[in-house]
């Protein structure tokens, strides 16, 4: 069974009604990254940060996995599918994917500001000032903010290195270290990109580019993978 490793970004959730970051209607056109998604922003105004993620969590409760998430979950039957996602939504899991690695954390989880190993599921949509961990310290979103380390990166690199086929679906590949994952993929491994727009991929790599939105492009990609020699 071929090991299919798929790096996903905000674009795969766009058709579920979840905004991307850098499209013309993207989140970063309405919010200052440093205010709502950085340790400095958290220190300056933690309630603003908590509200930003409460708003996104409310949106997530209304969203459903789309055909791209579902098709990837169904592909588990014919490929050994490993999903490495930059997304903090749980749409891959809700679609039925079982091997999902979150590089940038999870919207539905909170963690202690005193001990980062203390991670909790958030019941409902709100994480507020005054919500404390078992040590009595404030809880923060379990999200990797700009300027913070990506603890799952070495595991992700190992998975990418072991891929028989590697794909990128719905990512602009402009945020590191996630964007560097392609470099861990062996040169002999076929690489596919599904995106309606051009994506910044290494020029030295041969890429099969499927220029389409994810709900149409992922089934096309799987068909192309089935036809690989
Ligand atoms: N189907 C597939 N791709 C799409 C669709 C769609 N329907 N709509 C948009 N896209 C593509 C865009 O063309 C773009 O290439 O999805 C990509 C979204 O890029 P970004 O908004 O930059 O999202 P992403 O690559 O996931 O950002 C990476 O940046 O802000 C941080 O932590 C955040 O995880 C995020 C990281």
Detailed description of the structure:
The protein has one domain: Rossmann fold (3-Layer(aba) Sandwich), CATH 3.40.50.1220. It starts with a strand and ends with a helix. The chain contains eight helices and nine strands. The strands form two sheets. It has a six-stranded parallel sheet, with helices on both faces. A three-stranded antiparallel sheet has the order 5-4-6. By secondary structure, the protein is of the alpha/beta class. Helix 5 (67-74) packs parallel to helix 8. The longest helix has 17 residues, at 46-62. Bound molecules: adenosine-5-diphosphoribose. The site of adenosine-5-diphosphoribose has 23 residues, from helix 1.
Short recap of the structure:
The chain is of the alpha/beta class and about 230 residues long.
Distance between the termini: 14 Å
Output the CATH homologous superfamily.
TPP-binding domain
What is the level-2 CATH architecture name?
A: 3-Layer(aba) Sandwich
CATH hierarchy, class: Alpha Beta
- Shape field: globular
Side-by-side strand order of the widest sheet? 3-2-1-7-8-9
**Main structural class:** alpha/beta
Strand count, sense and closure of the main sheet?
A: 6 strands, parallel
Helix content bin: 25-40%
Q: What small molecules are bound in this structure?
A: adenosine-5-diphosphoribose
Count of helices? 8
Question: What features would you highlight for this structure?
Answer:
229 residues; alpha/beta; Rossmann fold; 6-stranded parallel β-sheet; 3-stranded antiparallel β-sheet; 8 helices; binds adenosine-5-diphosphoribose
